[in-house]
Amino acid sequence: MQSAHPPLPRHLQGVPVLQIFIAAFITQFCMGFEVLLRLNAASTIKHDFFDATNSLTSGAMIGEVLGVLFLGFAIANFVMSALVDSIGLRRTHVLSVILYLLGTLTLVSATPGSEHAYQLLWGGSLLQGLAWGSIEAALNPLVVTIYPTKKVPKLNLFHAAFALGMLIAAPACVVVEQFALGWRLQLGLVFIPACISLVLIARVKYPPSERVANGVSFGDMFKHTLTRPAFFLFLCAMFFTSAAELVPSSWIDLTLTKIVGIQGFWLVAFIYTVQIVVRLFTGFLNRHLGSSGILFFGCLFAFAGLALLSRAASPATGLFAALLFGMGTSVLWPTMLAGTSERFPQGGSLAIGLTASAGMLSTYTFMPIFGKLFDQAKISSAGGSAAFEALKEGTASFDRVMVDAAGSIFQAAALLPLVVVIFFAGAWLYDHRRKGNLNRNSQYVTSQAET
Questions:
Q1: DSSP assignment, residue 344?
Q2: Which of 112, 115, 109 is nearest to 51 (CA)?
Q3: Which of 164, 307, 315, 391 is the most interior residue, by most CB within 10 Å?
Q4: Where is the Major facilitator superfamily (MFS) profile domain positioned along the sequence (predicted)?
Q5: Tens digits of per-residue pLDDT, 27-67?
Q6: Which residue has the higher pLDDT, 441 or 90?
Q7: Separation CA 71–CA 183 (nearest Å)
Q8: What's the CATH number for 15-204+216-441?
Q9: Domain spans, the chain
């Protein structure tokens, strides 16, 4: 009697796959947990550090501090994706978590009015980004290595940890605010799950990556990645899908509070709750749509959500728009990485890492742009710089200006997923036809064998 499960590949025999996945899951949880803690603290940091010096450019300055996280991610992911197999998946994992905590300590050491306040905020965010990029450079290839036949559903489940971290961070932010514990302690909460992940990592031995186990050389990894025109098309697509998810999310807490009448970061938590649910069903979606079909519908939902967010005027419309946005963006990042690994398996960690780097580089590119757009929109809505500076926070006039500026942000962001809808439609059609041809060829070979 045949086993219901195919035998494990040789490089996975005796490997504690579940324990490794749990350790990776908790680390990814830390990343999402800290991201929302940062987003919630952004308003306070903006007020304490930047509004007092120049309120006209404070949006751009906080955008730079938030955005450099993604620059660090892109740099580290680009470099480490080529080197992670040489350094070792486990060693990279451990050192990256430690670096992330050092970046957090740098952030919280900044004090308003000090000479190096901006440099500490910017530098701490950069260190966190470098660590995060290194973590993903190791863990994305690790997940596809331990689940070689379930890349799309398992990578989506792995990235559901990020969404879970965002969700758990929301009530943590409320507790910190209610007890006036301060933004420094808030950012420091990430030490708790991070230390747990370090303990778990110390208990397991990691397998070699899929690329190494399959005997693909370092040079062939570059060859099978950088000589494929289709790979660069997917890099361009990642540039827009990542920005469509991460840039608007980074501004929700700063803009939507005035629009929907509820705390903006609760909308972020709601969005990521939706993401957890959707990512649990990506195995089912992948069987029926494939990775390109999932990405096509994900972009459509993201566009609809952002378009509605730009017009949201009540909690009900805001939550419905956030629902659509969350459903769409939930599948974009992990499915892009899993789809890349499926299409370019010999590209190994390099193909996955370059795709992730393109995503974070786009976020770094667009974050300051949207910060400047917000500053320009609020000044224009107020009737000029002098008129805006004369407004008092909390007044009806001030709220109207912020509502108008927020609408401009989300209206512009809605164009990002729309750009790649046609590309994914074409990829889906191509995959569908190729699958049909493979099935027909298989049926033909079977019929010939029977005769």
A1: -
A2: 112
A3: 164
A4: 20-429
A5: 999 999 999 899 889 888 888 887 777 767 777 788 888 88
A6: 90
A7: 23
A8: 1.20.1250.20
A9: 15-204+216-441
